[in-house]
Task: structure prediction
Amino acid sequence: FRSNAHNTQHTRTPVHQNQTTNHTHANMSSATAIPVSRQVEDMWDTEKTAQGKLRVIKILIKEEVCDVAQTVPKGSNVETDFNNMKNLVTRNEACYLLFRVADSHWIFVSYVPDLARITDKLVYAATNATIRHHLGTNCFDDDPHFSQPSEFDWHAYTESKKSIRCLSEREQHIEKLNEMEAIARKEQEEAAVQKTTQPSPADPARAAGRSLPDRPAKPAAATASPPPTASPNTRVISPASTRSPSPGRSGSIGGVAAVRTQINSFRKEESIQQSVTCNFS
Result:
């Protein structure tokens, strides 16, 4: 009985060791505390502005540090330089590529090929957000993910960005308000033009848009009928009261005021949120 208990105790020990080992590997796969070298920081501080002279900065993770592996100066044009980035990558090595589109506009390319080692895939995926945050997320207009050298095609890349136009809920609301403001402004301009070109009611010939011919004089009536007398309960309606309001005046002006009130309220709310965000940051 003691021998069996002793053997059972020894058979449980490796299970506990495997659980500890698996837990350690899980923590390593989710770690994102890989630092950026001093060379990357100094080069990025110089090149991120419009006065920079480099087109591409290739970054590799070596010995748990993000360091500069290669740089490429500006070439003849953006399309050619973008297509030539396929010569900077291989089919089994992951890397980051900082590509200058124009002046201070950059894109952050994460290149992780399918044939790369599993550990490299995990490390580069976990470090992506860390290095972009360290360099400045607002400095990059886009962060595409490539896995093959053939994907470095400027025409295909730009066409994919045109076909997929993702807007946040706030951006969609701003775009809709801008469209409403443009429509309201156009209606107001049309109402103003219609007001200035509307003929005067004192000129019936101009109101009709034609000249009235001379009417022959009517012969004198034998007996003139007296004008109809209005009873005390009869309501006399003046011609001015039956005149319909000119189209596009009150409705358009009211619509413009409502849209502008909504836009000003939204912009005021947006400025308050931005100021609160700046205070917290």
